[in-house]
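Researcher: We plan to redesign the surface later, but first we want a full-length starting point. Tokens attached.
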């Protein structure tokens, strides 16, 4: 691609991403409202705690939270994976923890991609162990062909094949996160 010679092609354009984010936001809002949560009729009720998983989710988190149109608060976590990426049982550890007590909170975890599923499983377990009232998950991209843990995000932007994706927060060796589109190698 012009300007980005390493990138083969655009998988999802900026326009496609923004359109899909709007739709995912609507799905999420509807799901909570169907449960009777975060009604505008009771503005003093507790807000949704949206947890962004750094660094990859930063743009999805920023776009999604602006489209959710629910009373919400934000916090962030950074985690890292260790061990063999292709087998189950590898370790995930917290690099930077939340500043918020999740006990009795409705938590929405926002990821850029679910690959082996190890990170998402760890995050869901962590929120549950800490006493969250509910935990829902969303991811911009889902790569089911790479899964080693049987887990699926509640809300998915796009399902992708096993190609290496970059942009819209996702990197290769910390490069290309800032691209407004999702490209592949
Ligand atoms: C990526 C991504 C997810 C995780 C998914 O994070 O953001 O958190 O990997 O992989 P899994 O399903 O196999 O656990 P990464 O560790 O690359 O960090 P980054 O978000 O800072 O790029």
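Model: Full-length starting sequence:
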């Amino acid at each position: 691609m012009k300007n980005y010679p390493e990138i083969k092609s655009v998988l999802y354009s900026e326009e496609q991403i923004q359109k899909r984010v709007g739709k995912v936001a609507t799905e999420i809002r509807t799901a909570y409202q169907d449960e009777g949560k975060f009604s505008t009729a009771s503005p003093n009720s507790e807000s949704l705690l949206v947890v962004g998983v750094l660094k990859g989710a930063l743009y999805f988190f920023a776009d999604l939270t602006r489209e959710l149109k629910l009373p919400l608060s934000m916090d962030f976590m950074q985690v890292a994976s260790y061990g063999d990426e292709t087998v189950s049982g590898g370790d995930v550890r917290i690099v930077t923890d939340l500043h918020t007590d999740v006990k009795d909170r409705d938590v929405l975890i926002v990821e850029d991609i679910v690959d082996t599923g190890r990170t998402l499983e760890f995050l869901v377990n962590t929120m549950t162990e800490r006493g969250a009232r509910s935990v829902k998950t969303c991811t911009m991209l889902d790569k089911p062909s790479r899964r080693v843990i049987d887990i699926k995000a509640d809300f998915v932007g796009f399902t992708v094949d096993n190609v290496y994706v970059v942009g819209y927060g996702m990197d290769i060796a910390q490069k290309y996160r800032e691209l407004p589109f999702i490209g592949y190698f």
